[in-house]
Structure formats: structure tokens, C-alpha cells
Amino acid sequence: MKLYIKYMVSIRCKMIVKQELERLGIEYGIIDLGEVVIKDSLEPEDHENLRIALLSSGLELMDDKKAILIEKIKSVVIEMIHYADDFPSVKNSEYLSERLNHNYTYLASLFSEAAGINLEQYIIAHKIEKVKELIIYDELNLTEISYKLGYKSVSHLSNQFKKVTGLTPSFFKYLKEKRRSILENK
């Protein structure tokens, strides 16, 4: 039996879910972003106890099929951008359609209706957050970052970064370094 969990978007969330399942004595198999495979069906009392336990950590059990699909979309995007070693070589639309077994137009329409932001904007926002993270870690240069995140060129990444943040990637890096030097000189 699969359970779908809203807002379960990080490794930390997976650890919280695992702890709650173990605390409640619920046997589970795979715990993935947004979903958990439970070995047996849950009694209504266990389902309610898990729901309450997850709510206290900011997570939510879901029953609505559309809400479940929206969370799956979010999980696939987050996994694709933040956790995959290589960015998919196919278009985002093809990747999401293939992973979720739905037409991209349907996915995008459902997502926009529920999330209040279109799916491409959501993907771009996550890509820019990943770019910021990689700039801060200072392990890759902009060319390597643009390649890692599937941009066609550094200028495309820079234009998108500036459109979203109002800053160029170079200026963002400069601000990070300036802040660090101010903190080190105190």
C-alpha cells in the first residue's frame, strides 16, 4: 500500500517520516520523496495517528488524487534538479511526462491551477536556487554550473538568473564573498 505525503521534499523529511513510522510500529518498505510503501494496509486508528504525527512536523497525508499527482510533480522536479547527478538530456516536458505517465499539457494545467504558478516557472525557480547553492559552494564555475543544470549556454543561465533574482550570477558571488570578508574581519 502506498501513502502519499504532502511537503515531503527533502532527505530530512524522509527521516522524520521514518522516525514516525517506527515510533508508531508501522512496517514500511521504501520511503521516497512524497511517498511511502507500507507493508500492510493501515487500520483507521493507525492512519489517523500517523496523520496527526506527520502534521506536527509540517507534513500531510493526502487522499485526493489530484493533490497526490501535484505532489508527485513537485517531487520529480526537486529530485531532477537537486538530487540527480546529471540533468536529464531531454526536455523538461518529456521527462515529466515519462516519469509520471501523463500528458505534459495535463500535468502543467493541473499544476498551474493548484499551485498558482506555472510548471515551467516552478522548474526555473528551483534551478535558480540550485545555481545559488552551487555558486555559494564555489566548487564549479558558471560554465560547469550551466552544463550541470541543462542550460544551453552561460548567457542563458545568466539571463534567467538576473530575471529571477535581479542580480547577475557574478554579482551574487561578489556579494557572498564581500559578506564573508566582512564577517571574517569582525
Describe the structure.
The structure is a single chain. By secondary structure, this protein is an alpha+beta fold. The chain has 2 domains: 1-63, Alpha-Beta Plaits; 85-186, Homeodomain-like (Arc Repressor Mutant, subunit A). 64% of the residues lie in helices and 9% in strands. The protein is built from 9 helices and 4 strands, in the order βαββαβααααααα. The protein has helices at residues 11-23, 44-55, 65-83, 92-100, 104-115, 119-137, 142-148, 154-165, 169-184, and strands at residues 2-6, 28-32, 35-38, 60-62. The chain has a 4-stranded antiparallel beta sheet with strand order 2-3-1-4, sandwiched between helices. Strand 2 and strand 3 form a beta hairpin. The longest helix is centred in the middle third of the chain and has 19 residues, at 65-83. The mean pLDDT is 90.
Strand order within the widest beta sheet: 2-3-1-4
Radius of gyration: 19 Å
Largest sheet: 4 strands, antiparallel
Quick one: CATH superfamily of the largest domain? Answer: Homeodomain-like
The general outline is globular
List keywords for this structure.
four-stranded antiparallel sheet, 9 helices, 2 domains, 186 residues, Alpha-Beta Plaits, 4 strands, Arc Repressor Mutant, subunit A, globular, alpha+beta
Topology diagram in text:
Layout: E1 2-6, H1 11-23, E2 28-32, E3 35-38, H2 44-55, E4 60-62, H3 65-83, H4 92-100, H5 104-115, H6 119-137, H7 142-148, H8 154-165, H9 169-184
Antiparallel strand pairs: 1-3, 1-4, 2-3
Helix pairs in contact: 3-5, 3-6, 6-8, 6-9
